[in-house]
Write a structure and sequence with these properties.
CATH class of the domain at 136-235: Alpha Beta
CATH topology of the domain at 136-235: Chitinase A, domain 3
Number of strands: 7
Number of helices: 9
Shape: flat
Radius of gyration: 34 Å
Structural class: alpha+beta
Order of helices and strands: HEEHHHEHHEEHHEEH
Strand content: 5-15%
Length: 285
């Protein structure tokens, strides 16, 4: 290890230790480097958590080296730019500053959660008035199913309970499935995309529409496994989507509309006020 590296490690370790041990001290007095009058302080550097001492030293060195190169490149570039290039940069900086300033006030305006809250009535109204926005792109089903071992002693009883519509039978089936089923789903009012069901249950069909129209209950044996599937409902592609599947999308749409309205109202208000106070002079008809 060179003498220069050794000295740097000692200095870096000392700085890191003092910064960690004396959090109450003002770290801005820990000067790390200076280039053309610009100064880098320890407080300017963010250290990731959980760095060991060796990694912390390497990280600090890399940050100092990067800062020095950045300062040198800035100084070099500034000396070689033409006046036109400098003016162009200043215009871009000013444009960016204005955009960021406006964006900050706009974010403040729309951050009022009560002003952009969406009610259930608004969700239902938008859903009812815009059915073409929420057409299904694939078939969906309400399904209950059991996946059991084919030689399971109570498989036939569980099949019968699945076909039943009684609450007591449903409760009994749930208890049995917890203990004996390889897999199961017994909620009767949840929509699934049929293609997702096919990933779990190896139903072979070349025409989903015909299959769903002709099967209220389906049994499939594959190797040592038997599947019992009960369909409680289906909707075909191009049908209006159930509200539950598009509710979050509607909330996003309505929230965006309300935010835009808030901003438009604010812009119109400051425009009208500026006209009244004669802050605006128009030179066109």
């Amino acid at each position: 290890m060179t003498l220069k590296k050794t000295i740097f490690r000692i200095i870096a370790a000392t700085i890191l230790f003092s910064a960690a041990a004396c959090e109450s001290n003002d770290k801005s007095n820990k000067l790390l480097a200076k280039v053309n009058g610009e100064k880098l302080y320890l407080s300017d550097i963010y250290f990731p958590e959980n760095l060991n001492p060796e990694d912390s030293i390497a990280f600090l060195k890399n940050m100092i080296d990067s800062w020095i190169i950045q300062q040198l490149m800035y100084s070099e570039s500034t000396s070689k730019l033409t006046s036109e290039q400098k003016d162009d940069i200043e215009r871009k900086v000013e444009t960016a500053r204005r955009l960021l300033t406006v964006a900050a006030i706009e974010e403040s305006i729309i951050s009022d959660s009560s002003a952009v809250a969406v009610s259930e009535g608004e969700i239902n109204t938008y859903y009812t008035n815009n059915p073409d926005e929420f057409l299904l792109h694939e078939n969906i089903v309400k399904v209950m199913y059991l996946k059991l071992r084919k030689d399971q002693a109570d498989a036939s009883q569980m099949k019968t309970l699945l076909q039943s519509g009684k609450d007591d039978d449903r409760h009994q089936l749930n208890e049995m499935a917890k203990s004996n089923a390889l897999n199961y789903y017994l909620e009767d009012n949840v929509w699934f995309y049929f293609n997702d069901i096919l990933k779990e249950i190896p139903i072979q069909t070349t025409n989903q529409e015909d299959f769903l129209k002709n099967n209220k209950f389906y049994e499939l044996v594959q190797d040592s496994v038997v599947y019992y599937v009960r369909f409680n409902g289906y909707l075909l592609s191009e049908s209006p989507s159930p509200l539950v599947l598009v509710r979050d999308r509607i909330i996003s749409i309505l929230t965006a509309q309300k935010k835009n309205q808030l901003l438009n109202d604010y812009r119109n208000k400051i425009y009208e006020n500026a006209l009244k106070e004669k802050k605006i002079t128009l030179y066109i008809d």
